[in-house]
Design goal:
about 220 residues, alpha/beta, Rossmann fold, 6-stranded mixed sheet, 7 helices, binds adenosine-5'-triphosphate, ATP hydrolysis activity, ABC transporter ATP-binding protein, ATP-binding
Length: about 220
């Protein structure tokens, strides 16, 4: 089956303050519609790996493929476009623009991509908000909604360009248990019903246990 994301022998060192082999021969693939969590003790290299997978960090050896396309070695301009087009990202903190409306926040990545008219983008953004049951918040200022609602807006924003993979770095890290459950269910539905692939770094074992697959890291390696 075609892989949405694949790594082949990714290695990374930090050279300051001294040589530190932070990622060791990381090789794995993610299939369409697969919901995967990455777990491991603090400092084992999860965020460093996610930074590479999301194409933000290019200082590594080995190969990264997205949709069978070799990503390693591309220019920053190409990477920025690939990222915007194919990867949605949800963080622990939502990074919404506080003074903008919910709708405007969701529309931003599509405006940046520049492939659709403003009317189409607005329509798509409304659809994403409805899908996440926050359509009624479209005109609210982002600063005026609850933490759980903000995270759903951040998910809508991550989905606006219909990415092939959604990545999360502790997406429930700042939420109470009810809102964490909501986010888990949203992700599960996206995988099952829309065939979206999800890759989530989490410290939350209850969350990880219910994903399709757990990748466990230790000291920069994947435990087999
Ligand atoms: N820029 C850097 N320079 C040197 N060492 C770094 C740098 N960034 C991270 N590290 C080290 O690399 C290791 C892996 O860090 P990373 O943030 O990937 O871990 P993590 O598994 O995501 O941890 P956590 O669960 O606490 O977020 C840690 O020992 C960290 O101190």
């Amino acid at each position: 089956m075609k892989l949405v994301l694949e790594t082949r022998n990714i290695n990374k060192h930090f050279y300051k303050p001294k040589d530190f082999h932070v990622l060791k021969d990381i090789s794995f693939g993610i299939q369409p519609g697969e919901f995967t969590s990455i777990v491991g003790k603090s400092g084992c290299g999860k965020s460093t790996l996610l930074y590479i997978l999301s194409t933000m960090d290019t200082e590594y050896t080995g190969e990264l493929y997205l949709n069978d396309q070799l990503i390693t070695g591309k220019s920053n301009e190409e990477l920025s476009r690939i990222r915007n087009r194919h990867i949605g990202f949800v963080f622990q903190f939502h990074y919404l623009l506080a003074e903008f409306s919910v709708l405007e926040n969701v529309m931003l990545p599509a405006k940046k991509l520049g492939e659709k008219s403003l009317e189409e983008i607005e329509h798509d953004a409304q659809e994403k908000l409805k899908m996440l049951h926050i359509g009624h918040l479209a005109q609210q200022r982002a600063s005026r909604i609850s933490g759980g609602e903000k995270q759903r807006v951040a998910i809508a924003r991550a989905l606006i360009n219909n990415p092939t993979i959604l990545m999360g770095d502790e997406p429930t890290g700042n939420l109470d248990s009810q809102n964490s459950e909501n986010v888990f269910n949203i992700f599960k539905n996206l995988a099952q019903e829309k065939g979206l692939s999800l890759l989530v770094v989490t410290h939350d074992n209850d969350f990880a246990k219910r994903t399709d697959r757990i990748i466990e890291m230790e000291d920069g390696s994947i435990l087999k």
